[in-house]
Amino acid sequence: MCRALCARPVTGMWAMSEIRNYTLNFGPQHPAAHGVLRLVLELDGEVVERADPHIGLLHRGTEKLAESCTWTQFLPYTDRLDYVSIMTNEHAYCLAVEKLLGIEVPERGQYIRVMFDEIARILSHLMLLGTHAFDIGAMTMILYTFRERECIYDMYEAVAGARMHVAYYRPGGVYRDLPDSMPKYKPSRFKSERQVAELNKSEAREGSLLDFIEDFTNRFPKCCDDYETLLTDNRIWKQRTVGIGVVSPERALALGFTGAMLRATGIAWDLRKKQPYEVYDRLDFDIPVGKNGDCYDRYLCRVAEMRQSNEIIRQCIKWLREHPGGPVITEDCKVAPPKREKMKSGMEELIHHFKLFSEGIHVPEGEVYAAIEHPKGEFGVYAVSDGANKPYRIKLRSAGFPHLAAMDELARGHMIADVVALMGTVDVVFGDVDR
Amino acid sequence: MDALLQPFESFFGPFWPVVWSLVKIIALLVPLLLCVAYMTYFERKVIGAMQLRVGPNRTGPFGLLQPIADALKLLFKEVIIPSGASKGLYILGPILAIAPSLAAWAVIPVNALASPDGGRPIPMAVSDINAGLLYLLAICSIEVYGIIIAGWATNSKYAFLGAMRASAQMVSYEVSIGFALICVLLISGSLNLTDIVISQQPGEHAIFGLNFLSWNWLPLLPMFVVYFISGVAETNRAPFDVVEGESEIVAGHMVEYSGMAFALFFLAEYANMILISAMASLLFLGGWLSPVSFLPDGFYWMALKTAFFLFMYLWIRATFPRFRYDQIMRLGWKVFVPITIAWVIVVAVWMMPPFSGLLTGQGG
Q1: Gap from A7 CA to chain B (nearest CA, Å)
Q2: Could you please report the per-residue DSSP string of A271-339?
């Protein structure tokens, strides 16, 4: 055992005796490691003296990979970055490409994007809430939140065909308009016609996708109340989160915090308000801020954000219902594929289709940084184009990286159990941190 | 009964007491181990229902064979001994964990039969000793050794942390359990578990047929609550499960165990849960006594009360987040120990004249 212990120089009256810190490898094979985090903890009893995050176990070279795919081909890779809030990654990338191209997204496309951004925010926060509570020991939460996540994945499936890596946003808009029908349960050996009809009705699968989403938004505030009943006023939950990992607003800014991690310290920084993209300036929503910058405030911020997102989704649904039809992706055939029917008859469209799918988009020379308010913070894409059909360089600014980098500062002096609470609240996804 | 046993007694001659004890032990342990097995099923079903799941439902009707399947699987698995482990202690650990949790059952009476001569009822227990409560306290203190030895012998850092937590936690909560039990024995005037139950029978409410109001839980309500919470802590169950702390120290002392060695820890944990629940129903809820006078006493009351406490265990587990290690210590030493000491003093003073006259029908 002695070999495994880490030697540390000691001074003062204890210099004679040999005191060593206990070094603990927290992960990567650990139930609370959230994927593949390896945290080397130096412990004094149960108290953490130093927390050293080791990253890179999920490194896939995404940024380098971008240099060898066309601008369109790279899009699905962004799904794999933060695989918990999928569509928002695509959004930042599309914004960057659109900025370089200097094109506008049709209004309906913008509303659909904003709606799905907020759905992704709820998706990500539900994941966070479930795992955070599960790590702290409230095991029921994760099953409650995953019930709602299931609905959201159904929405993804209906709109894009895939449940997780959707590749729904494209430079210039979104890949297609919202479907008019939802996938339904079918009668089988286990479920009779009547049961299936009832199930389809109770889950609001009878109408369009918008009906399904609206049903969800009606249900969701009640679900939030359920989560809060279990946690917000729970004494144990408060004991475990209040005063844990406190960050002052100044430190939070210095450490490069964004998103709920920053807002929990009391700074109302939100890119949706500060530099509105898409149609956020036309929507009515609030930015919840915390006060103490501890785990509890971050939790409260996120729950409040979910409620705000729900309101944004409602406003989007209202607009989308009032303005049916119209394009959802730019009609510039140099960027987006032409209509299928036109391609069958028109020479021009056929050429466009061929060029677009063999060569890809030609993006004018230049460099651009586009950032969005990702559920975890600011997610930015810095793209450099040399005028070819492939990016010259893509740099991704992930929200989780600076948060994880602050792990040592957050965890120092706390106990092992608090590290677990912090891991939950820091909300890192390793696809995002390691890229 | 005695007439029935007479031929066997003469057959075995001087060995009869040993044989009779063995029979009683088997008659207790087999149902107990079955209860333990089906406790896991009950737990998975109850928590499943609380968590929008169905729980096990594939093995046999309603998944009823699941515990059997689990046991078989664990039996056939290899017990892997890590290369760095201290072999002897590594194997001793689970044995030391399971042995006391089964041995404690020796003094637990599950029912009492009316005596033919109308005297003291004959308890259905392996042994009806006068120091039953002391025996339980002693055995409970041994339980922690299994965990400490397992955690130490594994030679793993997570296991070691688990063992450290276990030694602190289980010892602290034994103190408050001890004081709670002292209150019970003060008002019952006996350390014999059967006598403790019988002493709960009379009381001023019992005269009106509301027997359950004369049980110990009402006069000792704070002790009852403290006892049960301490019992949850003593068995390392949620929200006090820092010893295993799945998301913190993975599984604590059990992290390197596999196969039957691992299963023994689980058996011990569940046997302890049932033990704490059975004790709670004996000491505070009148054991096999009927809550109302128009229903007969019997084993089923005991089973029902124990099941109620076991359900509480699961309910708590599905609801609450886990305490932090130091918060558990704070709760134990700064809240429970002072409360219990104060209450012991209150009860002791109350027992003395001139106050004792206020105790109508209690203890005496």
Answers
A1: 16
A2: HHHHS--TTGGGS-------SS-SHHHHHHHHHHHHHHHHHHHHHHHHHHHHS-SS-SB---TTTSPPP
Q: Do A143 and B53 touch (CB under 8 A)?
A: yes
CA distances from A353 to A176, A388, A390, B344 (A): 16, 18, 18, 87
Within 88-127 of B, beta carbons closer than 8 Å to A belong to none
Q: Which residues of A touch B246 (CB under 8 A)?
A: 31
**DSSP 8-state class, residue A6:** B
Q: What is the pLDDT of residues A192-223, one digit of tens each?
A: 888 888 888 888 888 888 888 999 999 899 99
B52 contact A CB<8A? yes
Q: How far apart are CA B121 and CA B118, in angstroms?
A: 8
With contacts defined as CB-CB under 8 Å, which chain A residues touch B52? 143-144, 147
Above 90 in pLDDT, residue A304? yes
Cα angle at A300 between A294 and A306, to 5 degrees? 135
The minimal CB distance from A138 to the residues B84, B158, B320 is found for B320
What span, in angstroms and rounded, lies between the C-alpha atoms of B256 and B229?
29
Q: Looking at CA atoms only, how far is residue A118 from chain B in angstroms?
A: 26
Please state the ipTM of this predicted complex: 0.82
Q: Which stretches in chain B have pLDDT values below 70?
A: 1-2, 203-207, 354-364
Q: How many CB atoms lie within 10 A of CB A116?
A: 29
- Decide which of A353 and A11 is more confident: A353
CB contact under 8 A, B248 and A234: no
